[in-house]
């Protein structure tokens, strides 16, 4: 249903079926949008005409209205709605069908000229913008319609839209039409049918507007899906004091608490609540009281000026409250609702599963499970693994926050801690972020155009708008910290400055936001790492109950190992020894080893490294407390370690007692045209076995030293970049001989494994042979991807972004495992390896080990574990469980 009707259309139909009041309407399917994109407007109108005419007739009959009638006109909304919800990204037009005749008809029917003209001016404004294309000239300019409204308001000395008289509204209609004609050269269409077709096509077109395209990229929604178009009889929230419109959530989308909440406006229509034009009021009394405290409004003012819906219209509230419960019970998930009250009667205009923060996602899934509304497997599937990332983000340091100065207060629109430099325009936020700066996007209010800037910002601060404003909803969807409606801020876009508590801040100044309290602080504030507890911890236990795949971590230090264990890693899948080579004085010994002319020189330098490496391994083995640790022997090309600057070359010359020229000559001789395909990986160990000997000795001695102290260590020694069985056998022999030597010296033994990385395509092809020697495989999918595609990882930046943009590649294969191509090698490697050694232990240690869809693939090809960076361990654990259920 959703695929064809879009989410909005399908849910409107479903609400109607379960007895929720919805205005009559019909849906033009997403397939038509695809046809429109292929064959163009004329063809589609021809195909649809008779169906659409019949469907409009149906609406007219139900409502007792006629299109364009000067007695009782039929008015409709034309709404976009894709399969997946893309809030505000595409266009919608309200009050369609109005012209000079119809407005007279509307007055006759309702006896309310003000309402009729208000609807008419709104229609001309929306249609003029969306269909006829009258938009602001540049980012610093105001909306041309708003400019006209402001002129009229100023002349009349009024502030609110609701204070404009009938005559003012008439004037607006005339001026709007004239502005459209002047700027776009187009006449405003009078014929409702012409209006309707124009609107339908504009909605189709909005599928391909810039922000919709960007949103799809961000959320991985395919371009082919297209949008449906919903045409629906209008109901009016702008009919007077007994009417209104609002937005509500069945639970708190920020924290996940089971509290019905939302905002509404009396005598308003459509997007008024979200657009932040007037201060919206809360739906529940409780919510209203909480809001008043945050907004610094007294109880008297609150109950007289901003009463909740519960207080203002108790009967409507009761019905709305019952309806929200009904909808949540029906969909078994948090719902995001749009409703309108026309003259005391409630109508639902939309329901969808609410966007929520990572924290809310976890809490809601676990609460629904406890409430018995969903089962364990569903609870696991309800949480997007990547969203857990937000829960692993830093929070403000408690002592730092105490000392910080609050300069403004707004609504806690999307939780989290953010600190960054002020930027006022979305495109500038992008530019700054591209230069590696941390920015806070500060706006009067945000609109869908600001999406890209919001995405790269650390946090978002707006002066206007409530908890359901665009900024708030989008930020929660992105899991980005947001404070909205900080009314104390005076923002000047042109001067690029903001006044807060009497202080003027400029572009580039540092501020901090607490999205959980709504506080805005002056300056930069220290943050600390979060931990895994409560619902999050329970979710992780649930994940482990269902998953088969184990999750290890990539860690090179005791600190990382401890962090990863606290996130539930059950071993180290990749410990890179070369990272240990750069610390402190070690690099000198490493350089000495590389620059030596012969084996004895190398051995002398390696002897200096031995105790340091042994110490490192002891620290890591101890941190892992008996869990397996895969140690990879030296892998990178040697030239990465040698000194390239003259000063460093001189220093090494003194150290080694040779001439700087000799050092330079040696460094030059190490130059490779293609280092990633050069002298590296097991090729180092095969040519300089003494390096392997030293590293194996360090590993085994460390394990035996720990054993003496009663701590178990389980080393798994991993040979990198193997491509032939002979390489593997060569290195296995050096490893085992060295281990036996150490065992004899120390008169004790431990268990250990010798295995290899599979990262050269040939290794996957001859995996059956390699497995005769290797006791385990770990797929190094970074190198495997590089060599399978023939893309150099270090040079791919020149063309990969263009490939992605042109759709030549769907995803960056270095981020998301290419299951179709590289995946075949992985699958083949697993199968062939196990054909020789059926208990062969298999894992993955590339970046892909922490990426949910790739984790699913690893599960399906029967791997034993994935390994990823410490902060991605919880994500991989959940992805592993989802793959299993
Ligand atoms: P979006 O997808 O951006 O949310 P919608 O199609 O939901 O856009 O419409 C925008 C606004 O117009 C919403 O507030 C919605 O409730 C209101 N609206 C849409 N159709 C009608 C209608 N038939 N009667 C009254 N209000 C409507
Ligand atoms: Mg909507
Ligand atoms: Mg590699």
Please describe what this structure looks like:
The mean pLDDT is 93. The protein is built from 37 helices and 30 strands. The longest helix is centred in the last third of the chain and has 26 residues. It has 885 residues and is α/β, with parallel strands linked by helices. Helix content is 48%, strand content 16%. Strand 17 and strand 18 form a beta hairpin. Helix 5 runs parallel beside helix 7, helix 23 packs parallel to helix 25 and helix 24 packs antiparallel against helix 25. It has an eight-stranded mixed beta sheet. The protein has an eight-stranded parallel beta barrel with strand order 23-24-25-26-27-28-29-30, surrounded by seven helices. Bound molecules: adenosine-5'-diphosphate and magnesium ion (2 copies). One magnesium ion binds next to helix 33.
Quick rundown:
The chain is an alpha/beta fold. It contains 37 helices and 30 strands. Helix 16 crosses helix 22 and helix 36 crosses helix 37.
Task: Describe the secondary-structure layout.
Blueprint: H1 2-17, E1 25-28, H2 30-39, H3 41-63, E2 76-82, E3 92-96, H4 100-110, H5 113-130, H6 144-156, H7 166-184, H8 192-206, H9 210-219, E4 227-233, E5 244-249, E6 261-266, H10 272-275, E7 281-282, H11 285-295, H12 299-305, H13 309-312, H14 314-331, E8 335-342, E9 345-353, H15 358-370, H16 376-382, H17 388-391, E10 395-396, H18 398-403, E11 406-409, E12 411-414, E13 417-423, H19 426-434, E14 439-443, H20 451-456, E15 459-462, H21 470-478, E16 481-484, E17 490-492, E18 497-500, E19 503-506, E20 510-514, E21 519-522, E22 527-528, H22 534-546, E23 550-554, H23 558-566, E24 572-576, H24 586-595, H25 599-624, E25 628-632, H26 646-656, H27 660-669, H28 682-687, H29 689-708, E26 714-719, H30 725-746, E27 753-758, H31 761-765, H32 767-770, E28 776-779, H33 781-789, H34 800-806, H35 822-836, E29 841-844, H36 852-860, E30 865-868, H37 873-884
Parallel strand pairs: 13-14, 14-15, 15-16, 23-24, 23-30, 24-25, 25-26, 26-27, 27-28, 28-29, 29-30
Antiparallel strand pairs: 1-4, 2-3, 2-4, 5-6, 5-8, 6-7, 8-9, 10-22, 11-21, 12-16, 13-20, 17-18, 18-19, 20-21
Helix pairs in contact: 2-3, 4-5, 5-7, 6-7, 15-16, 15-22, 16-22, 22-37, 23-25, 24-25, 25-29, 26-27, 29-30, 36-37
This protein binds adenosine-5'-diphosphate and magnesium ion (MG) (2 copies).
């Amino acid at each position: 249903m959703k695929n064809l009707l879009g989410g909005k259309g399908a849910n409107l139909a479903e609400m109607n079926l379960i007895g929720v009041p919805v205005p009559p309407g019909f849906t033009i399917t997403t397939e038509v949008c695809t046809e429109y994109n292929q064959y163009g407007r004329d063809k589609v109108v021809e195909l649809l005409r008779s169906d659409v005419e019949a469907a409009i007739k149906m609406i007219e009959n139900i409502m007792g209205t006629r299109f364009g009638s000067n007695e009782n006109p039929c008015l409709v909304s034309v709404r976009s709605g894709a399969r997946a919800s893309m809030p505000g990204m595409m266009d919608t037009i309200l009050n369609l069908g109005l012209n000079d005749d119809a407005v007279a008809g509307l007055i006759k029917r309702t006896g309310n000229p003000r309402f009729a003209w208000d609807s008419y001016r709104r229609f001309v404004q929306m249609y003029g913008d969306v269909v006829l294309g009258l938009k602001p000239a540049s980012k610093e300019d105001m909306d041309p319609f708003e400019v006209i409204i402001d002129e009229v308001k100023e002349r009349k000395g009024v502030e609110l839209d609701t204070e404009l008289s009938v005559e003012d509204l008439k004037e607006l209609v005339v001026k709007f039409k004239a502005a459209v004609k002047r700027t776009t050269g187009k006449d405003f269409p009078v014929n409702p049918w012409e209006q309707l077709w124009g609107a339908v096509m504009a909605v189709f077109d909005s599928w391909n507007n810039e922000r919709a395209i960007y949103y799809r990229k961000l959320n991985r929604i395919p371009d082919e899906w297209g949008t449906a178009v919903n045409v629906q009889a209008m109901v009016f929230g702008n009919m007077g004091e007994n009417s209104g419109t609002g937005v509500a959530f069945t639970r708190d989308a920020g924290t996940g608490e089971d509290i019905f909440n939302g905002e509404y406006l009396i005598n308003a229509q459509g997007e008024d609540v979200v657009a932040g034009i007037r201060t919206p009021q809360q739906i529940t009394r409780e919510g209203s009281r909480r809001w008043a405290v945050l907004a610094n409004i007294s109880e008297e003012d609150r109950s007289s000026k901003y009463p909740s819906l519960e207080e203002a219209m108790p009967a409507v509230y009761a019905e709305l409250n019952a309806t929200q419960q009904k909808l949540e019970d029906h969909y078994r998930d948090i719902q995001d609702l749009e409703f309108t009250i026309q003259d005391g009667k409630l109508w639902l205009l939309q329901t969808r599963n609410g966007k929520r923060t990572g924290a809310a996602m976890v809490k809601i899934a676990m609460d629904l499970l406890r409430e018995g509304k969903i089962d364990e497997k569903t609870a696991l599937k309800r949480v997007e693994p990547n969203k857990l990332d937000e829960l692993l983000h830093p929070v403000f340091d408690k002592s730092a926050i105490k000392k910080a100065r609050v300069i403004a207060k707004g609504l806690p629109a999307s939780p989290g801690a953010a600190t960054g430099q002020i930027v006022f325009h979305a495109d500038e936020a992008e530019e700054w972020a591209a230069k590696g700066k941390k920015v806070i996007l500060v706006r009067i209010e945000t609109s869908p155009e600001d999406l890209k800037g919001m995405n790269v910002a650390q946090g978002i601060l707006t002066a206007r708008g409530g908890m359901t404003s665009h900024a708030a909803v989008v930020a929660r969807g992105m899991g980005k910290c947001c404070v909205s409606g900080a009314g104390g801020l005076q923002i000047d876009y042109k001067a690029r400055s903001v006044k807060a508590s009497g202080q003027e801040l400029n572009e580039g100044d540092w501020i901090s936001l607490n999205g959980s309290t709504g506080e805005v602080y002056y300056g930069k504030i220290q943050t600390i790492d979060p931990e895994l507890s409560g619902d999050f911890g329970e979710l992780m236990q649930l994940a482990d109950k269902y998953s088969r795949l184990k999750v290890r971590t990539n860690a090179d230090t005791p600190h990382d190992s401890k962090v990863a264990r606290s996130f539930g890693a059950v071993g180290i899948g990749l410990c890179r020894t070369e990272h240990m080579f750069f610390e402190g004085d070690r690099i000198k010994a490493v350089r000495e080893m590389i620059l030596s002319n012969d084996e004895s020189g190398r051995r002398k330098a390696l002897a200096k490294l031995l105790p340091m490496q042994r110490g490192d391994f002891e620290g890591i083995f101890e941190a892992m407390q008996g869990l397996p640790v895969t140690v990879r022997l030296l892998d990178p090309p040697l030239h990465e370690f040698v000194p390239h600057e003259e000063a460093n070359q001189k220093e090494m010359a003194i150290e080694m007692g040779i001439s700087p020229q000799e050092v330079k000559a040696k460094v030059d001789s190490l130059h490779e045209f293609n280092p990633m395909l050069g002298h590296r990986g097991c090729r180092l160990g095969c040519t300089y076995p003494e390096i392997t000997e030293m590293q194996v000795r360090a590993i085994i001695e460390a394990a035996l030293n720990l054993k003496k102290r009663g701590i178990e260590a389980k080393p798994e020694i991993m040979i990198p970049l193997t491509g032939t069985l002979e390489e593997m056998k060569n290195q296995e022999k050096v490893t085992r001989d060295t281990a036996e030597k150490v065992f004899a010296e120390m008169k004790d033994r431990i268990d250990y494994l010798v295995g290899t990385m599979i990262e050269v395509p040939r290794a996957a092809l001859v995996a059956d042979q390699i497995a005769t020697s290797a006791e385990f495989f770990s797929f190094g999918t970074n190198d495997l991807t590089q060599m399978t595609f023939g893309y150099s990882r270090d040079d791919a930046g020149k063309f990969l972004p263009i490939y992605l943009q042109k759709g030549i590649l769907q995803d960056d294969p270095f981020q998301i495992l290419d299951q179709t191509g590289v995946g075949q090698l992985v699958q083949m490697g697993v199968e062939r390896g196990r054909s020789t050694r059926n208990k062969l232990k298999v894992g993955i240690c590339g970046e892909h080990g922490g990426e949910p869809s790739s984790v699913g693939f690893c599960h399906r090809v029967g791997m034993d574990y994935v390994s990823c960076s410490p902060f991605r361990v919880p994500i991989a654990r959940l992805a592993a469980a989802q793959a299993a259920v």
